């Protein structure tokens, strides 16, 4: 056990855990944020995707010792029901979710994709999002929602250039 | 529609700080779609046992969802049935999940049954309460009821424009008798049903707020991970906990058990203060398993056993017509083919998990289960408790596909909590999920068809060889007869082929491998052979496969309409460029008809599935957009089974353990999908499963048309 400092969604935490504990379990069981999900435990399904300094990582396979002191963002840090991120809004507009379990990971990957490629093609989406499994098969709607989010972010830019926060807060 | 058995009862009125409360509940006897209204005893009011509709005098309206939501949309669809007739909008209601108590009737999400069985009972419940509220308003105003109407949780007096909110009427309405025969709305007046209305759970699920079973926290709980015999049925010979106990956080290691319907096996459980520690401790366990007869668990041997049975004559299903044997022997052309489907895992994204707290004379459970009522019954029996001593809290389900109706995991959590006297949260690893079952049973379809000189199909026989879910899971004695459950998708009702001599028969093939229903159950396997073979017959008869189906189904107008619509929407009659081909299949299951037309293309990297055009006739609809979503879902789920790895058992263990060796379809493999819904006023059919059965045969038929090679065994190769 060791004291580890984590910054999750802008908030500092000091947790006392095995340094080898995957970030996923530290976030879920110790910090107490349950939006990030366990799906496979070996970076195969993407349900556990969070951002490390703005880039997507698989938290199930990332020990807390590797990320100590760095900036971690989870689904709870992207937006809330009252203040939705453009990607979350697009997900609602396209009614993407079914069971919803993989969707935190899908959205975290999509947010990162749009930061890298603000106007992705279907091929870009397929390439970037293929690490995220959905057993309900919402993939076609994921594609549509990413295009929709891309459009809405583009539209919002000139109107609220100053107000638009970076995609990954 | 029979409505006479709605009992007259008074509603309950409670006053005081909680305010007046109008409560209406009803119970639905098993196998009956009739509604029985009954008074909710005062003791059941409160947080724990809500009736179906609650309206309090602060204006809060709570509707109960009686079927757990696993992604199929019941969180919206069932409350919408009540809300439509109650005349409230969906943003005026709170939705709560039922807790398994008998008064809610069957609460099992399964068999694509939620909307089609609750369609009338829930609408009637809403209509009855609305009539009482309108009557209460009419009484207050001293005007005829005919001058009043309800809208958006208010009752209006048409001539004067006066209105009362439902909240203002609750007290008076609760004194009125329950209408015996509430008038239901004409479907043309529906405001919610049949409309694309956003689902209320989506905002929760895109922000990480929705609570799944795995998200449950109970103060003081221990986390558990369980070591299981790779051969599934092995018992514990001995185990060494020395290294495990040294893992920080590990509190206890104990011999435990997994109670499956057909057998109970021993396991070793590690309990810790966090899940990671439990898993680490489990990895350090040294367990010796008692010898297991691995031969009984070889999928290769099971396949050989099925093929051997295929040579023998089976037992007839009901509904056979003519004399198949005679007609077949006299046929000018005989066609025979055997199709094989393997075991398949459900692999829902949320691994099975349960949190249980045994408190001596009662137990409380928080879990993603498909049926809270069944959970109460099974757990009560397992622990020797009375049903009222078992409390179940159902969360959202992170997928289920049948798996979360098999309650081994709930009993494991209950067992552990009882042993350690503390709340326990058990989470299966993905490896547990894939390598321990239960699975969709492997099966064989043997098909024979006879064609006369004119090209008419005169004889047809589908013989199914499979293990019986009814037998293994529900301990039914088949008595050498055909398993009536096993003809889903191909029985005389689901497949009304107009062929003079039709036989459907069955052989039971025994296996100990744990089996269970898997999305669309037997229809998911039966229809592969059935619909592939119709194409084979068409080719043998020199007919187009669509034309042969239109001919064989000409007396079934709903099938014809689906086929014609599929042909039109997919451009089936139009020629494709070289290197592309189409394939078609149609099936009825769970009272819904669905057809898919696949378009496949040769590419440098093998065959690409370009597009799927689907047509579904599920009668009257609740949310068309959700029907499209469920059909898309069925295509993806069905494709995974058809083209990806089967579950195989060899050398004492299941060979697939996680998504790296049991791959599932990903976004880059997803074809363009287009779903069309037939608009009609037929009774609602199922939606969560019927899109799946025609997936594999439509693909197999397209692949044959592209390559000339008939594939009769999964996984279908895209080459």
Automatic annotation (TrEMBL), chain A:
GO terms for molecular function: 2 iron, 2 sulfur cluster binding; metal ion binding; oxidoreductase activity. Residues 2-78 form the 2Fe-2S ferredoxin-type domain. PROSITE patterns: 2FE2S_FER_1, 2FE2S_FER_2. It comes from the Bacteria. This is (2Fe-2S)-binding protein. Keywords: 2Fe-2S, Iron, Iron-sulfur, Metal-binding, Oxidoreductase. It comes from Siphonobacter curvatus.
From TrEMBL, chain B:
Residues 1-32 form the signal peptide. Keywords: Signal. Coiled coil: none annotated. NCBIfam families: TAT_signal_seq. The keyword Signal applies. GO terms for molecular function: oxidoreductase activity. Transmembrane segments: none annotated. It comes from Siphonobacter curvatus. The lineage of its organism: Bacteria, Pseudomonadati, Bacteroidota, Cytophagia, Cytophagales. Residues 207-293 form the Aldehyde oxidase/xanthine dehydrogenase a/b hammerhead domain. PROSITE patterns: TAT (PS51318). This is Xanthine dehydrogenase family protein molybdopterin-binding subunit. It holds the Pfam family MoCoBD_1.
């Amino acid at each position: 056990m060791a004291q580890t400092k984590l910054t999750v969604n802008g908030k500092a935490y000091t947790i006392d855990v095995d340094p080898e504990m995957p970030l996923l379990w530290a976030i879920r069981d110790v910090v107490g944020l349950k939006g990030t999900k366990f799906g496979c435990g070996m970076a195969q399904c993407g349900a556990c995707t969070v951002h490390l300094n703005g880039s997507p990582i698989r938290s199930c396979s990332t020990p807390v010792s590797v990320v100590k002191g760095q900036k971690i963002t989870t689904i709870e840090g992207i937006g809330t029901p009252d203040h939705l991120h453009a990607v979350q809004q697009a997900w609602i507009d396209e009614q993407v979710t079914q069971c919803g379990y993989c969707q935190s990971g899908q959205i975290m990957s999509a947010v990162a994709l749009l930061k890298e490629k603000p106007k992705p093609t279907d091929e870009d989406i397929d390439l970037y999002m293929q690490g995220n499994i959905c057993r309900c098969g919402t993939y076609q709607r994921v594609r549509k929602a990413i295009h929709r989010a891309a459009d809405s972010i583009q539209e919002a830019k000139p109107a609220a250039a100053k107000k638009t926060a970076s995609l990954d807060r | 529609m029979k409505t006479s058995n709605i009992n007259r009862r008074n509603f309950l009125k409670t006053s005081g700080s909680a305010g007046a409360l109008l409560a209406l509940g009803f119970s639905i006897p098993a196998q009956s779609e009739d509604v029985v209204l009954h008074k909710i005893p005062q003791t059941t009011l409160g947080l724990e046992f809500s009736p179906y509709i609650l309206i309090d005098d602060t204006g809060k309206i709570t509707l109960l969802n009686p079927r757990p939501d696993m992604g199929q949309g019941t969180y919206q669809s069932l409350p919408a049935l009540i809300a439509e007739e109650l005349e409230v909008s969906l943003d005026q209601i709170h939705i709560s999940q039922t807790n398994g108590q008998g008064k809610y009737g069957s609460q099992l999400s399964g068999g694509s049954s939620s909307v089609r069985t609750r369609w009338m009972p829930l609408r009637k419940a809403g209509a009855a309460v609305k009539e009482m509220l309108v009557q209460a308003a009419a009484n207050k105003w001293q005007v005829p009821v005919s001058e009043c109407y309800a809208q958006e949780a208010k009752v209006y007096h048409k001539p004067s424009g006066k209105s009362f909110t439902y909240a203002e009427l609750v007290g008076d309405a609760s004194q009125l008798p329950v209408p015996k025969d509430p008038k239901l709305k004409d479907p043309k007046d529906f405001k919610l049903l049949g409309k694309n209305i956003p689902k209320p759970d989506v905002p929760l699920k895109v922000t990480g707020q929705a609570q799944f079973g795995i998200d449950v926290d109970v103060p003081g709980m221990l986390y558990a991970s369980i070591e299981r015999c790779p051969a599934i049925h092995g018992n514990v010979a001995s185990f060494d906990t020395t290294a495990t106990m040294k893992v920080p956080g590990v509190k206890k290691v104990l011999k435990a058990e997994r109670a499956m319907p057909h057998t109970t096996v021993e396991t070793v459980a590690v309990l810790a203060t966090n899940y990671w520690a439990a898993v680490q401790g489990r990895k350090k366990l040294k367990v010796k398993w008692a010898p297991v007869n691995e031969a009984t668990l070889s999928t290769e041997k099971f396949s050989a056993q099925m093929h051997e049975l295929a040579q023998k004559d089976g037992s007839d299903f009901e509904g056979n017509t003519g004399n198949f044997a005679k007609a077949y022997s006299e046929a000018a052309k005989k066609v025979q083919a055997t199709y094989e489907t393997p075991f398949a895992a459900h692999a829902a994204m949320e691994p099975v998990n349960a949190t249980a707290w045994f408190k001596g004379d009662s137990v409380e459970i928080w879990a993603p289960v498909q049926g809270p009522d069944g959970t109460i019954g099974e757990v009560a029996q397992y622990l020797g408790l009375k049903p009222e001593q078992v409390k179940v809290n159902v969360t959202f389900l992170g997928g289920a596909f049948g798996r979360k109706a098999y309650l081994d995991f709930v009993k494991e959590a209950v067992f552990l909590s009882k042993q350690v006297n503390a709340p326990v949260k058990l989470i299966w690893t993905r490896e547990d999920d894939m390598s321990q079952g239960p699975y969709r049973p492997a099966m064989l379809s043997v098909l024979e068809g006879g064609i006369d000189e004119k090209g008419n199909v005169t004889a047809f026989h589908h013989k199914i060889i499979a293990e019986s879910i009814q037998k293994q899971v529900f301990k039914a004695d088949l008595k050498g007869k055909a398993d009536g459950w096993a003809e889903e998708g191909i029985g005389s009702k689901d497949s009304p082929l107009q062929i003079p001599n039709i036989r459907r028969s069955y052989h039971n093939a025994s296996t100990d491998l744990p089996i269970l229903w898997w999305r669309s159950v037997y229809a998911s396997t039966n229809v592969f052979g059935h619909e592939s073979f119709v194409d084979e017959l068409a080719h043998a008869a020199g007919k187009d496969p669509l034309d042969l189906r239109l001919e064989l189904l000409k007396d079934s107008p709903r099938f014809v309409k689906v086929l014609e619509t599929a042909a039109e929407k997919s451009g089936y009659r139009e020629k494709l460029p070289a290197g592309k081909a189409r394939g078609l299949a149609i099936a009825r299951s769970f009272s819904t008809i669905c057809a898919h037309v696949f378009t496949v293309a040769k590419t440098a990297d093998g065959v690409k599935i370009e597009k799927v055009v689907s047509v579904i006739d599920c009668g009257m609809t609740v949310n068309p957009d959700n029907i499209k979503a469920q059909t898309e879902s069925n295509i993806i789920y069905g494709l995974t089974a058809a083209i990806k790895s089967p579950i195989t058992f060899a050398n004492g263990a299941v060979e697939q353990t996680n998504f790296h060796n049991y791959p599932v379809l990903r976004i880059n493999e997803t074809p363009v999908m287009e779903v069309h819904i037939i608009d009609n006023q037929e009774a609602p059919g199922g939606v969560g499963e019927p899109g799946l059965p025609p997936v594999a045969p439509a693909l197999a038929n397209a692949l044959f048309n592209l390559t000339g090679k008939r594939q009769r065994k999964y996984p279908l190769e895209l080459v």
